[in-house]
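Record pair follows.
FIRST:
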Amino acid sequence: MKTDELREKYLSFYETKGHSRRASDVLVPTWDPSVLFTPAGMNQFKDHFLGRVKLDFTRATTCQKCLRTGDIDNVGRTAYHHTFFEMLGNFSFGDYFKPEAISWAWEFLTDKKWLGLPADQLTVTVYKDDDEAADYWHEKIGLPTSRIHRLEEDENFWPASAPSLGPDGVCGPCSEIYYHPKGSSPVEIWNLVFTQFNRVGDPPNNLEPLPSKNIDTGMGLERTAATLQGVTTNYHIDILRPIVEAAGEICGVKYIPEDDNGRRLRRITDHVRACTFAIHENVYPGANKEKYVIRRLLRRAVLDGHQMGLREPFAYQLVDKVAEMMKAGYPELQETTQRVANVIRTEEENFLDRLDDGLARTEKVFNSMRKDNMTIVDGGEAAELYQTYGFPPELFEQVAAEKGLAFDWPGYKEAMERFGEETGGGTSVLFTTGPIESLKNTLRKTDYVGYDQSEADVTVKGIVANDADGTSKLFDDYDQTGEEHPLIVVTDSTPFYGESGGQVGDSGEIVGADFRFLVTDTQKDSDLFLHHGYLTSGKISSNTDAKAIVGERRIGIQRAHSATHILHYALQKNLGAHAQQQGSKVDEDWLRFDFTNLAAVTPEQLAAIEEDVNERVAASEKVKWETVPLAQARELGAMMLFGEKYPDPVRLVSMGTFSRELCGGTHLTNTGDVGMFEVVSEEGPSAGVRRIVALTGAKAKEYRQQVAASLGDIAKSLGVATLDVPAAVKQLMQYVRDLKKAASGSGKPPEDLPLAVEHAKAAQPTYAVQKETLKETARMINVGMFDAPARIAALLSDIDSLKKEIVARAEIGVLTADDLLAQAELIGDVKLIVAEAPGANPNVMRQLIDQLRKKAAPCAVLLIAGQGEDKVMMVAGLSQDVVKSGGKAGEWVKTVSTIVGGSGGGRADMAQAGGKDPAKIADAVTAAKAFGKKMLG
């Protein structure tokens, strides 16, 4: 039986048993912080199992895309391990239980209409105390007791060892089904989990029966396909063997299953398949969390290729083959093969650039270990190699393992914590508990009424706050007022939008007859809306009626959110269909929009994008939304984001005829209400992803005013027309550089500053020209746009001080290194030079000291100079041979500076200090000579 046929048969079978066929969840469930990737079919149904959502169905069946890395080192080595795999499952939420789960599993496996496996080649396991399951297998199914094995909790309980070790929460025994191929080892193909307990505390008597029992089963698609196709490894089934063979052709290696290259080709197949699915969902290789996992998988594949002699990118060539073999279950993969291949190739190129160097450095580590008879790679060295050269520790471990060496993971993690660069990310508690979860169990959901109204009559259903010991709990009523007493209020319905889809939560107030509650933020937890804030007056009680009023900030949020849809359209128009949303955040008249693009957006492209958005705003096109079936939304051409899982029906937001997106956020009714749209910045937050920050409405207007004012301030300070600002700034910077040279004694003073005046009578430029002029000016002086006026003012101020230094230097004449050397006192073989350098600034003093250290080493020099009536500067420098003998310039100036009422310090070879009393300079010189003699012995 073909793998695609098996997938369809399973889902069809359970549909005949009254199950709702549900789509696979995405690989990265952003709604669930407890996991990086979807690890099992039950993940998307966690709230269904707990009864925290309205149940539109009580039976479900899925084929779930999964990604796990717990057994990554076994991938390619064993017959059945993968990182990416598909899990067939059937689920019951308080509906059927063990009898049905067991009998249907047996029917599907053995009935010739379905899989038709020989019954005498199947055995089962049950939890040691689960007499109910064991009896059903024996008495109803007819399995002899010799083929029913009772196992301990670490094998046949979910989560493993939960009765003894925890965690607390939903759990239950399981029953595994094994197939015994003739002449081969048995294979576990199905696990039936019976979630029937709530674990509370430590044993004994810590398993409380659940009032509503559930079923969660998982059948490995690849394992079962291998069983049905009579092959000894999953990698030889009909959808994987062709990818393995293609990998061999690309790598120029014949696939021989038993040799090392065979193992490498299987691992490449697995890792490229996993990365293809992940990158399709816009999970690009990166430095943290799920992105780091994808980078790690790709780099392992590249290392395998490198060990087979490849020195150029190759893995990207497998993407088309993966999409071809997986097209029956996932036809959408073929829409993004070029983008996915480009991302993989870029990552390969980046890693190959450093791989040879990294391998050479690991070899040095191994050689050193051999000399010292060490068998464990030092974690600190691995961390250093990762920090300095980007060589992943997992690859270090892999190379070490091939040489029979172990890897010090605790030492590596400790070193990385010192570096502050821990990557990846773990998981948190699978099922959480607490007052919010209690409200979910009773209220289930909050009805959202905010799409068409900003005020609503509501009833308070839950009040959550911290009690005296800081524990979060439910209150029937609450009367402490002020920001220092934060509350969460839950109502039966709400017009407040809860933060989701990148849109921030609404603020406002909820007002009852006896209280006023200020809402500072609104969050969502599943279908429950949580109003965060505090009481400003009165006492709030459960089951009281109130008026919920959304604040005016909502309008600014809607402007920004509608602008993101227009921006999305403009990005795809100017950059291509690949420029899909990677993430966003919209607040009051402010938006941040991340999108896929391998290269930075050019200034010309950015200007065109901004112009297109403003044209759509000026066109004042109608914005509307409607709830339609998902299939209809597709037919209408709605933009579907890869990596997003959509409900059915969906909310379709349309803007004119140019934009159709599926979106749950709040919007304007006309694009013209966006007002203005201003791009503030464009940058790359991670590999393959670009980010635009922009403003709308009032903030965009303020931004434009600030551009005009900043450019006007610069023009006024320079005395030139606005269009002449860049040229004048260029002249100013050169003038300041020339003055600095003259002040340091290495150049002549320049002529007076000439400034451009070519456009003095020109008309006022357009806003677009003003903005570009200010940007150009800011780039020249390497500051932000709105920091440019202050920087120009500082440069102008520098001119006055530099001119004074030049005058002072001229008054004191030219002090040379030879002049100072003539004053040297010999202490042993070291020349001690302590002198006053009237009018010299610290730069001049450092230059003189450097000349002396080159010309007269070994030497110790301290120079001191008055700077006006109330300032003293001193600089000390030691040649390296004096430093090696224990001399410390920092201690020298620190001690002497106290005499002139100051302080300072620095390195052992060069240090600087300041003071406030020029009248004490002579005393300081005497003290400096005494300290110098003592320091030099």
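SECOND:
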Amino acid sequence: MARRPLPRILTSGQPLARMTHSASLARSRELARTAVESASDVFHPLIIIARGLCRLGAAGRGRWIATPREHRGPTAFFVGACVLVVCLVPYGPLLALITLMGAGAWAGRERTPVETGPGEAAAERLRALYEALVPYLCVDGDPSPLYAPDGDWERAFPEYAFDDSGRLERLQLKYPAYFTDGEDGARTRIEQVLYAKAGRGREYHFAWDELTNQLTLTALGPLPTDIAAQRFVTSPGELVLGFTDPDFVQRTLPVTGGEETRDAPPVVWRTGPRSTEPHLLALGQPGTGATTLLRSLALQALEHGDVLVIDGGGTGEYGCLAGRRGVLGVESGLAGALATLEWASHETERRLIAANRARQAGRPAPEDTRRPLWILADRPTALAHIASAEGREDPQQWLQVPLRHGRAAHVTVVVAEHFESAELLSEPVRAHTKARVVLGPATAEEVRAVLGAPPHTTPVAQVPPGRGYARLGTAPVLRLQVPATPDPLDDATGQAHREAVLALLPERTVPADGAGPAEPVDAPQPVDIRKAGDVPKTGGGARKAVDVRTVGDGKAGDVGKPVDIHEVDARKAGGAVTAEPAGGPAAAEGVPQDGEDGSAGEPVGAAVRAAHGKGGEPRVVNGSADASRPEG
């Protein structure tokens, strides 16, 4: 029987030799590693200094390269002079060497690496956000999809930031070039997903960059609500609607909020002949701050102009303005509103014709045509409903002339209305109010219908009074917080806000009850005289508003000369008074000629008012709303 040969490992000595060689090689490596570690411990300070000197040399070389060529010569001369001084100082080279070694040791020290990247919880939230965007940003057939199931979210989110509580504060994401970022529907879907995944309860701003295919989401903080009514540092014709985010306007104003003074970014509305949006429309739900906005604008406008207030709601929210200097009237009834707005319409025409004739004559426009006139109409549709029930004309029709031609005549119209009554606004009001404000909670569709563009922020659950959006013409939509301007006569108003509003009110020229004379007035007492035969009658049987005024220079012979508002109360150089009938063409003839006084009649329907007559002397105007009521 043949024997089986033995295994080769037992008959050959080569494997044993290899094993012996491997063992010796391992011992050699261990000895070398030990020697290197010992040498690194011994030469560790020198290694640190050498590394620091290399870093200092690289930094110096970079600074030299960054230095302009024309500055290199003086720099080299300065360094050489310093080296020469160090060499001449006793022990200078030794001290310089020690300083250099210390600087090298400090620059070459080992720094603890800063941990970068999100934590585990933040990474999980970004991963969930990425997966939620996949159905909207992934298309079949893309060879290299940016968004794919179980894809790399770090490619799609190059920048992100979280606050201290772990909520997403800022996110920059990329999207494919084939995404239809020019369609509002596609944008809205992405914004809704981001709003849901980033955390509800906060406002987020979305900035779309179509050029680089990037979207930046930013969490916005609440707008300040502690700014009360105060004097703002603005130019004539500029009014502060409210305050917004600092990143969206290029201007700040010093304001007092609470007990501190700080700079806040305002939303400034520019009015006047050079304004592209001379009139404003504010819409909102009841109690959202529309009346507060009009009251704030009235206090600012009274500093440089005159104000007419139409309170359609009849709640007396503007009672604090009655009888104040510059307030031509505060009307809450239909008769007074019709008479006041009719006067404002004729006053606009008179200003236009007076300015035109002055320019044709090569003279500047009269002073009274350049003084701003503000018409503030709060809920005019309520009066329109009453007028329709009584078979009378809509008060809004008298706003057509101020809206169309008010910019050139320094007449500004501000209308505030509720959302549910917005469809009752007249066509001129909707067409000529280019500055728009939306207050209170509103959907994106409602904001778009009013402002002409959707908001770039998400809605909030809790909306404070005076909070909304504003858009001036074709400018971007801005968040807005109206300054707190409550009614000082309201018992619920705080003492601080009451004092702030009262401090801005002009002095009273008429007592609160309207029974006494104006203060101060040196002119004779008013005489209430009406020319019954001169009152024109309309086709509907209604009598036009008649403004009864006393005209004179304060002399005894001039007391009690009545003039109809539809007649010209101009006085020529010889002192004669010419009167011409009003209406249609009469508006053109109701403008003073060369050398005449350009004073206009006061509105009817208010209490006793003070105005200025010829020569700058004060006179008293006594009007009544009864003059505009129908005969029967």
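COMMENT: The CA atoms of residues 299 and 505 lie 7 Å apart.
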